[in-house]
Amino acid sequence: MSTFSFGGIATGLDTGAIVAQLVAIKRQPIVRLEQRKSLYEKQLSALSDLEGKLKALQDALAALDTPNEFGSLAATSSNEDLLTTSASSLAAPGSYQVIVNSLATHQKDVSQGYATLTDNAGTGSIFITVAGETTQIDLTNPANTLTDIRDAINDAGAGVHASILNDGTEGTPYRLILTSAESGIDASFTADLSGLTGGTAPILSNLTQAADASLLIDSIPVISASNTVSSAIEGLTLNLQDADPNAAITVSVATDDEAILEKIQTMVDAYNDLFSYIESQSAENGTLRGNSTLRTISTRLKTLFTLPLTGGEGSLTMLAQVGLSQDRYGTLTFDQAKFSEALSANYADVRDLFVERGTNLGKAYLVRASIDNLTDPVDGLFKISRDVLGDRMEDIDDTIIRYERSVDTYEVYLQRKFTAMESMVSALQAQGSYLASALSGLYM
């Protein structure tokens, strides 16, 4: 836009203000286009918020749409002094009798005592063998202390940990201790320090032998290198705390109803948060009022949550049968007592109302799959809506550029016209002054 300015010296008019007002009138279409673009930007932001709430519902549904995810399980032990336990989604409801005969142990060897930590323990090579694999550790210092040997063994990563014990005895309290990194027989080791010369080399004796844990599960012998037994019963972890061959422990796995209730409540909260947003955006002053994406989501989800389930494996076909009802605005209410009663009476049918299991396509699965389609980054409804709004804003930008050029041309045109008018008026005023002066001279 031109910065040329002038004043109405000849005419007495504020020609600069007149031109500015005429240009402002000429720019009105640009103002309207900018307002429209601002509205499209607000719609893009509102669509992002809508998609975020839709994905929150999707996440809640994903915790309910398979048997393993729906069926939260809790494992308990009848004697946690001997054994604690936990269950994953792969566990199956049931009970097991467990007897812990013995725990898995680490091998531990100890050296003779040294008077100080700086005593010379020699120089040379140490050989440590674990599971048939030997690691050579070379000590290159002329004289190595217990601390040097400890550090060299720990740095070697040979499957053995070294430490120093002060046993508090008079004269020679410091001892080198080697401990297998893992428990169990397969982690046992041999350590050869006889090659150290020039000092008093550590001579090791065994404190504890490596051993596997031994237990009975429903009278079946089970051996484990670790006291954390996670492969004996699918989905169940047994943490062995102590051994007592005379104590039978009952490990029970049952459905965790409270966890399922929490998952359903999370779904209900996400659903209601979504529909509260849809309602606010559909209101008279809503940014997305009349938007087809908003209408499609509202209609589709209400339909999926209210229509009877067809082709399911269980006897339940409606969410209302298990305490989930929907009002005409789309708000879900959750009767937890009714749901718990249904879950206790027929767990399998309640589960199949929600999950995908073979040909059974439950409500949680169907709604989540529908949201997957809506939010697909390639050809989903949100992608299409964003592309449409993006194209409209690009068109507005192109149109504004053309209008701005036209306005600039118009402003220059006005400036020239008013400048010419001022010049002409100024010339006429000069002629008038001359004529008046000449006429006055004739009558003098």
Features:
single chain; 444 residues; alpha+beta; Alpha-Beta Plaits; 3 domains; five-stranded antiparallel β-sheet; four-stranded antiparallel β-sheet; 19 strands; 44% helix; 22% strand; flat; disordered N terminus
Concise description?
By secondary structure, the protein is α+β, with helices and mostly antiparallel strands.
List the helices and strands and how they pair.
Blueprint: H1 15-26, H2 28-62, H3 67-70, E1 73-77, E2 83-87, E3 94-102, E4 108-110, E5 124-130, E6 133-139, H4 146-156, E7 160-166, E8 174-180, E9 189-192, E10 205-208, E11 213-217, E12 220-224, E13 228-233, E14 236-240, E15 249-255, H5 257-282, H6 292-306, E16 324-326, E17 332-334, H7 336-345, H8 347-354, E18 356-357, E19 360-361, H9 363-374, H10 381-442
Antiparallel strand pairs: 1-15, 2-14, 3-11, 3-15, 4-8, 4-10, 5-6, 5-9, 7-8, 11-12, 13-14, 16-17, 18-19
Helix pairs in contact: 1-10, 2-5, 2-9, 2-10, 6-9, 7-8
Question: How would you explain this protein's 3D organization?
Answer:
- By secondary structure, the chain is an alpha+beta fold.
- The protein has three domains: 33-69 and 258-384; 73-104 and 213-255, no CATH class; 108-208, 2-Layer Sandwich (Alpha-Beta Plaits).
- Helix content is 44%, strand content 22%.
- It has helices spanning 15-26, 28-62, 67-70, 146-156, 257-282, 292-306, 336-345, 347-354, 363-374, 381-442; strands at 73-77, 83-87, 94-102, 108-110, 124-130, 133-139, 160-166, 174-180, 189-192, 205-208, 213-217, 220-224, 228-233, 236-240, 249-255, 324-326, 332-334, 356-357, 360-361.
- The strands form six sheets. A five-stranded antiparallel sheet has the order 1-15-3-11-12, with no helix packed on it. It has a four-stranded antiparallel sheet with strand order 7-8-4-10, covered by helices on one side. The chain has a three-stranded antiparallel sheet with strand order 2-14-13, with no helix packed on it.
- β11 and β12 (220-224) form a beta hairpin.
- α2 packs antiparallel against α10 (381-442) and α6 (292-306) packs antiparallel against α9.
- The radius of gyration is 43 Å and the shape is flat.
